[in-house]
Structures are given as structure tokens and as C-alpha cells.
Amino acid sequence: MMNFYKINETLQHSYYQMPQELFCNEKYKKLSIESKVIYAFLLNRMNLSRVNKWINDKGEIYLIYTRKEIQSKLNLSDKPVTRAFKELRETNLIKEEKQGFGKPNLIYIGKIEQEELKINDIDIDNYTEKVLADNRIKEDYYIGENTIQDTENLRANKNDNKKHKNNNIDVSQSERETKNLEDIKQKCELYLFKENQRNIIENTLDLMFYSNNLKI
Fold first, then answer.
1. Which fold has domain 14-109?
2. Structure confidence by residue, pLDDT tens digits, 142-177
3. Are 113 and 106 contacting, i.e. CB atoms less than 8 angstroms apart?
4. Range(s) for CATH 1.10.10.10 in the chain?
């Protein structure tokens, strides 16, 4: 016997999506939690605007979401909602356009500005090499060797063995390895780190992934 959805279950698999950058980007981190939640509500409301074709002559989409609706939705009074809208306007996440007396404002949603990452005053290449060198020393310790040169020889032998086995290995195996590594990097959410930190972590992941002794 099949079970079918009922009217009160239509929202069972619907979710509000809140951009993580509201919590990571320095420009938006100080926004109140009410502002961030309301911004997520407004993003979701654009689906209704798309269905109703609410766009201006520039092709920009707008929506209608009154303060009263949001107050009721979040069970908040007028004061925190008004303050949240002010914060969103000041950070260019929304723009309101008045329609006239008695009519609700039109709300335009501003895109989140990507944070400009600044590299610290350090030599990234040298720093990355130092981290990789430290990892090589650790690898030497685990395999019972004492020098980085021995580790390099081990890698060279490993590469030679791979070349000899190439005739017996399906090409798809290499593709699977690459995909597995990319999946690992994606789960690490590297985009949350600054560029120099991200490069160091990626290099470390590469080293550990292809090592015989340090496995992720």
C-alpha cells in the first residue's frame, strides 16, 4: 500500500539556506543573528518572485515581504526586525524601494561580496616548502629512515613501480584516486581558510594521500 503526501506535509523536505559567508566574511560577521536569518528568509522568498515574474525594467528581481510577516514568522517584535533591516541595508544586502502610501516596500536582494584575501608578509613558497620538509621528516621517522633523501628515493621507487604496473592497471583507477582526493579536500571546506593556509593544507593532503605510511 502506498503512502501519499498530505497537505500538512508539503514542507517536510523544504529548508532555508543560510550562506556560510555571513559567519566567515569579516564584512558580515558582526551582523545580528536576526539579520542573518532574515537574509536567508529573503533569499528563499525570491522563488515566489520568480514564479510571479516580479522584476523591474533592468531585469532585477524584487520581492514583497512585510515586516509584519517576518515578525510573525520569527516570533519577534517590531524593534529587532526593524534593526535587522537597518543592518542589512547598511551592508548593502538589501535595498528597499517605496511604492507609495499604504503599499509595502519592494525589496531587492544584494549579493554577498566576496572577501578579499590578503597574503601575510611572509614568503609563502618558502613557508610551504618548510611544512613539506617537516612532513618528509615525519615520514622518514615512520618508515625507519633518517634522511629526507631516503624518503625521496622511496618516492622515486614508488613512481617506478607505478610505471611498471601501468600496463595492468585500468586508467579509471587513477581517475578514482583523483576523485577521492578531491572529495577529501571538499569535505575539509578549504574555502573557509585564507589562501596561504589553503595552499599549505592542500599540499599536506596531497603528501599524505599518496604516502604509504601516512594515510588519510
1. Arc Repressor Mutant, subunit A (1.10.10)
2. 444 444 454 455 455 555 555 554 444 454 556 777
3. no
4. 14-109
